[in-house]
């Protein structure tokens, strides 16, 4: 029997969403469209239309040594061209953001190649070759894992994921990179990832409603679905905890919950 | 020296400068209010006037039920998403050691 990955245990909505995002065969739903140029502007690593800077010649010109691994692994477009390593960083609010940093790490590991991801409490950074970063950022910004109000594209001064939301339900940003346009109900980026102004505001669409967010979230919360309501997940967490705590100490002991 | 009590308003959402101004304007009209201070997360931006407010501290002459009811009425009007009210002393009211060293009065 062929092994079929389960990805994540549980039957509740957050568990289903986690499973969905982690499963590479599931295509992320596209809920907005942002042009390539705008993605480049928000990232701020280069000007739109500018050439990619490189740190080494293209692989084809380099004359690589004979190596079975190099033959086996197809380099990513960025690696092929010798791009610089660049990054994109997202902050996810604790108030029912569509995804949280830890699941981002899981999701990226299943979906993207040639990247290095770093998880912190409120933010998640992913490093890769410049054109790969742009492709990843475009896919993530356009997909259902990004909400205009509860997710932020922040290169620095990321503080705000655990702060109260503002009156319009927007996550706090100390650098005020995005503004809420009351007339259209849309969130617009007026600064790039590191806080430099950009020539024209970039709209990322309307924030989702609270009910919709609760359906889409991967976060277990006391005022949403708690982890205790999903027995299988709780069992997994307890298993992991037991094995971490006692596995190296008295491994002959049976796990007791 | 008489230490006046303070009433802290903790809105459940970070409020804009405009809403905070409305609340403070409304409150400073009353005689029993001696000082109103606001506090919020720091802004690292050139447009510093767009700050957010997370705490409002109202210093009052005397803390009694009438005062609390008036303050609650004002809060109900401007903070429909909910808030907490606490009574105590939340800001500095006398010189501390470091202030003494700095020569502050």
Automatic annotation (TrEMBL), chain A:
| Co-factor requirement | coenzyme F430
> Which reaction equations make up its catalytic activity?
coenzyme B + methyl-coenzyme M = methane + coenzyme M-coenzyme B heterodisulfide
Q: In which pathway does it act?
A: One-carbon metabolism; methyl-coenzyme M reduction; methane from methyl-coenzyme M: step 1/1
Biased amino acid composition, Basic and acidic residues: 10-22
Query: Keyword Zinc on this protein?
Result: no
List, in alphabetical order, the Gene Ontology terms for molecular function in this entry.
coenzyme-B sulfoethylthiotransferase activity
Q: What is this protein called?
A: Methyl-coenzyme M reductase subunit gamma
Query: What species was this sequence derived from?
Result: Candidatus Methanofastidiosum methylothiophilum
- Lineage of this protein's species? Archaea, Methanobacteriati, Methanobacteriota, Stenosarchaea group, Candidatus Methanofastidiosia
Question: Which gene holds the coding sequence for this protein?
Answer: mrtG
From TrEMBL, chain B:
GO biological process: one example: methanogenesis
Q: Which controlled-vocabulary keywords does the entry list?
A: Methanogenesis
Q: Which InterPro entries match?
A: Me_CoM_Rdtase_D
Q: What Pfam families does UniProt report for this protein, alphabetically?
A: MCR_D
Q: What is the protein name stated in its UniProt record?
A: Methyl-coenzyme M reductase I operon protein D
